[in-house]
């Protein structure tokens, strides 16, 4: 049976460091503050918003929500972002996505100041991830994968890492981050031919395909480290990942559960980025 890589264990250490930095900032009269921009009432957005606010409050940071009707104009949203960019008391911005179709997401995302872009929304921040330069911040979910590996003392140097998924939210950025940690990285996706032959070669397997159960026993080998980024709902309405946990757990050496794995670390990483932005300021 695989050893579980638990998000709560990672959060315990990560949150201690965050809380200590928040106290140091407050001693200087600085309160790390996140602004969340939400358009509409999407249940998923509301759930993530509640989680982010709760984590901010628990760690001593502040969180302000700016919500808009789903018919908001692009001009109104851009004006709000401009005000946030110029507000020295706001250190991080989280724009909940996807946005309604009548809005130009690229224009709106890139209007956010890079130094306040705490979830890698802008092209400039993405370029920072790919170039290895200290521009903006990597996506919180991709960073959460790295935090888990680091917390459990998993050295990526020289290891074969396979990432299943090619999105700019997880797949591509986490691949670049693994390269920076000296892993040899292969990127796959749901159209990769003979996927199992590639995934079985991995020492570290990160799955962010966005499809429930895409990875099963036939894709995993003994001793592997499996990081399941997926958050899906099964036929019984229960949360599940992209990996068939009951199958992979019997084979892999280490595995993250869903829930209780990567997702639970993501909001802590978000607050970490806000606090770092306040410290840079």
Describe the 3D structure.
The protein is of the alpha/beta class. It has two domains: 85 residues, Rossmann fold, CATH 3.40.50.10860; 124 residues, NAD(P)-binding Rossmann-like Domain (Rossmann fold, 3-Layer(aba) Sandwich), CATH 3.40.50. The chain contains ten helices and eleven strands. The strands form three sheets. It has a six-stranded parallel β-sheet. The protein has a three-stranded parallel β-sheet with strand order 3-2-4. α2 crosses α10. It is globular. The chain starts with a strand and ends with a helix. The mean pLDDT is 96.
Write a concise keyword list for the protein shown above.
Rossmann fold; single chain; alpha/beta; 16% strand; 2 domains; three-stranded parallel β-sheet; 41% helix; six-stranded parallel β-sheet; 281 residues
